[in-house]
Sequence to fold (256 residues):
Amino acid sequence: GPACAFSGAGKEAWNEAQKYLSGGRMTAEEAEAIRQLSAEERAAKAIEHLLEAERQAATAQETEQVARVLGGTYNSLGLLQANAKDFRNASYSMAEAIKRMPEDAVLHWNLGNFQFSAGDYWEAAQSLAKAKEKGDPDMRLKASQALVQAYMKQAQSNDPNAYEYAIKELEAMTYEHPNDAELMYLLGENHRLKGDGAIRDGCGVRDRVRGPRISARLGAIPRPVRLRRVCSRAASGPQLSCRTVGYYGRRRTCAP
Fold:
């Protein structure tokens, strides 16, 4: 397991946590008992001991390392809970991970995914906005796309004002990607759903905004019901893995 020079009472709790993270020394009996636990149970037991180590950390080095491993373990637990479709508890675990690693855009992205799947669309939008703020260019683009979906679902949940937020996000995206015909269509679709009478559909927005020079047929517009991917970092290292959790629905094209 990761080395940590504990000097105080937190050392015992730290060492106990490592057993459940497959990195600590243990007796054969302990190893057998741990093997009988599910992955979710092992993560929960590791967190129990890591929380104690966090409370007893005596130096900045101890605090920093425990926070990193605890955040990674909460992230792993959240992913396991999400796999079991326990999105409420997955959201709680991811929020706890973010408390320890607030600058990690992947954690904010995961939290937004879980909140979206739980039906908490407004909260999902706030988390996705954080992922966009803290992420690299690829993350910012994905988070913007997911933000639009979260705002649209919020609007469909008896909060029509959320269409305005989706429109603002799409306007920013079309400014950065002026030749993206699909974004133009989706912008118009949100105006239509919001009830803006001057803009009837996305195809009209495409023609009005981009002008008559654009004659290529628009590609199909995916409508994800759930967000696309969740990513995880290993508790003891920087490895990052992602998996798809969403799917796409109805397709729409505009004539040239």
User: Anything to note?
Assistant: Strands lie at 229-233, 240-244. Residues 127 and 187 are 22 Å apart (CA to CA). The two ends are 59 Å apart (CA to CA).
